[in-house]
TrEMBL record:
PANTHER family: NO MECHANORECEPTOR POTENTIAL C, ISOFORM D-RELATED, PROTEIN ACCELERATED CELL DEATH 6-LIKE. This is Ankyrin repeat. Keywords: ANK repeat. PROSITE patterns: ANK_REP_REGION (PS50297), ANK_REPEAT (PS50088). ANK repeats lie at residues 67-90, 166-187. It comes from the Eukaryota. SMART domains: ANK.
Length: 230
């Protein structure tokens, strides 16, 4: 990626981006780590640039970098709820346009339509460590991340959120860190979410063994209470 384009995005020079930068440059230029212009805009939390690039190059929403991270992974890692919402909304628009054209979402062989929507594909994408965006949001949590977790889980409530390459599910990570609010959000919104962890441990084991004594008991009670509902 040439330095002028990088600086245009980093400084959110939206007028230059709209008037001078070509669609081909937005679509094709990458950093050495294969971050696209959309990855860069997300990394710097430049909302206007994210919207502009999504409008002109919607395919970049799903494109991974060298580590397999999509722009949604980056936004979730940073806790950028506004950008997470933009990316999910863009995927919804892409799916609707695809349906209107009669293409379905990610049509398979013989013209068959995929059973998953574009939004589901986006949320379910895993990087090379088999982390979804929800894994990243839980792992890098702080007080701003609850909205990100809510957006991701509500975008695809049917997904099971299985384990990453370390054997950790998002629910396990949340329980391990004593994140009661995240545990409840995942269980309430994604009731099929997997709860396993490494070494045959479960999210309940993780909650009980958590170093966060302030929320350890609340997490354990929440896991038992919600999982035992009829």
């Amino acid at each position: 990626m040439d330095s002028s384009l990088y600086e245009t995005i980093r400084t959110e020079n939206i007028d230059r981006l709209r008037q001078i930068v070509s669609d081909d440059d937005l679509l094709l230029q990458m950093t050495p780590l294969r971050n696209t212009t959309l990855h860069v805009a997300v990394q710097f939390n430049k909302k206007l640039c994210v919207e502009e690039i999504c409008d002109r190059c919607p395919s970049l929403v799903m494109q991974p970098n060298l580590k397999g991270d999509t722009p949604l992974h980056i936004a979730a890692t940073l806790g950028s709820s506004d950008i997470v919402a933009i990316l999910i909304h863009r995927a919804q628009i892409c799916h609707q346009l695809d349906v209107e054209r009669g293409g379905g979402s990610g049509g398979g062989a013989g013209g068959e339509r995929s059973s998953t929507t574009t939004v589901q594909q986006l949320v379910r994408n895993t990087n090379k460590a088999k982390d979804t965006a929800l894994h990243e949001a839980v792992r890098y949590h702080n007080r701003f991340f609850s909205k990100v977790v809510k957006l991701l889980t509500e975008a695809d409530p049917a997904f099971e959120y299985s384990a990453n390459s370390n054997g950790e599910t998002p629910l396990y990570l949340a329980a391990k860190e004593g994140l009661y609010e995240f545990v409840v959000q995942i269980l309430e919104t994604c009731p099929s979410s997997a709860y396993g962890g490494p070494g045959r441990r479960t999210a309940l084991h993780a909650a009980i063994l958590s170093n966060n004594s302030g929320t350890r008991n609340a997490c354990a009670r929440g896991l038992v209470h919600i999982k035992m509902r009829p």
